[in-house]
Amino acid sequence: MSVTYAAEGRHAPARHSRLVVLAGPTAVGKGTVAAAVRTEHPEVWISVSATTRAPRPGEVDGVHYHFVSEEEFDRLVAEDQLLEWACVHGAARYGTPRGPVEQALAAGRPAMLEIDLQGARQVRESMPEALFVFLKPPSWDELVRRLVGRGTETEAERERRLATARGELAAESEFDVTIVNTEVHDAVEELVKLMKFGSES
Question: What are the chain's domains?
Fold first, then answer.
């Protein structure tokens, strides 16, 4: 397990920060890590994103994502009900509902957003006090293996996601902390330690 703090003027973790923003390249395992945090650490509140994409097999509306129509997503954007949103991989849109995040923070709970790079950049603009964590694969070959192993995308979609991932990996220096996702349980424990340290400092 490897945890690295960014240099150049960032302090790790941010004092009194209860919000952790977890991002990283496609197929690195952000969703798997977030699901494990939800199971192993129920004290941590995790945002459920809204998306216009169709559910994958086994995904449950309101648990994994809020699956919404294009029209409903337009309404959320127009009414400023999303903390961040982006069009990912040139296809579906994803966004973080603002209200639940603010409610969790007001209640003093450790809170986490599991989002893409574009979303993380938007959140940094509005909540710079949050702790931004980059989830990194052990290697490029392992990232490719995980993406192919999911079996949820066509070959064309995989190629598009890998092209996106190359750019996302280059953004690591924008984050406060890097965790290498070699083993899910280890990544979860490092992430929760960071959250609690950030909350209690």
Answer: 3-200 (3.40.50.300)
